[in-house]
Design a protein that fits this description.
5-stranded mixed β-barrel; alpha+beta; 14 strands
């Protein structure tokens, strides 16, 4: 999910900074340019952490700045298919819950939460089961698996990540704890 990668990119240094082209300046310019941007190959750039090499600057006609190619390390977020992720419910709607996983949200559709029917409680911002009295709502921690992924490089907030919590070992952390305790009690009584 999170990776440290070595990347290359070109950054424009404005004329007022040409006397002081340092790794710190190039790092700040790269951060302004890249952080939060989505790339299909490396995922979302979370942070530019270290500039290793700054090439010779190039001047382009009718452009005031000088363009430098830089090699640098970045921390990226790249969700993988079938990856198990922990997150927090950030919004509940009638068709499911949005889970914050890193810099993006994934959709945990109501059909992927439980085999039980879950009713939407708009006032309480939760989904609730009448059978088991279990609820899931804003602020709850959940463990899910990524089952679909559609990355939008131009508008990262429009990227879509589909999640499931219906497999063994997945779901709301409180439910998982209850199940572990139940299994432990069964094992101890045998």
């Amino acid at each position: 999910m999170y990776k440290r990668v070595r990347l290359k990119d070109t950054v424009e240094v404005p004329p007022e900074h040409l006397a002081d082209v340092t790794p710190n300046l190039v790092k700040k310019l790269l951060q302004d340019k890249l952080e939060g941007r989505m790339d299909e190959e490396v995922g979302s750039v979370v942070s530019v952490v270290n500039v290793h090499d700054i090439g010779d600057g190039a001047v382009l006609p009718n452009r005031p700045g000088v363009y430098y190619e830089a090699e640098f390390d970045a921390v990226t977020f790249d969700p993988q298919m079938q990856e198990v992720v922990d997150g927090e419910i950030v919004e509940v709607v009638n068709f499911g819950a949005f889970v914050g996983i890193g810099p993006v949200d994934g959709l945990l559709h109501v059909s992927q939460i439980s085999d039980e029917y879950l009713a939407y409680d708009e006032e309480g911002q939760m989904l609730a089961s009448r059978e088991s009295n279990r609820t899931i709502g804003v602020g709850d921690s959940v463990r899910t698996r990524i089952v679909t992924k559609s990355i939008d490089e131009r508008n990262p907030r429009e990227s879509k990540i589909g999640l499931t919590a219906k497999q063994v070992g997945l779901g709301k952390h409180g439910w998982l704890k209850e199940e572990r305790e139940k299994r432990q009690a069964t094992t101890e009584s045998e």
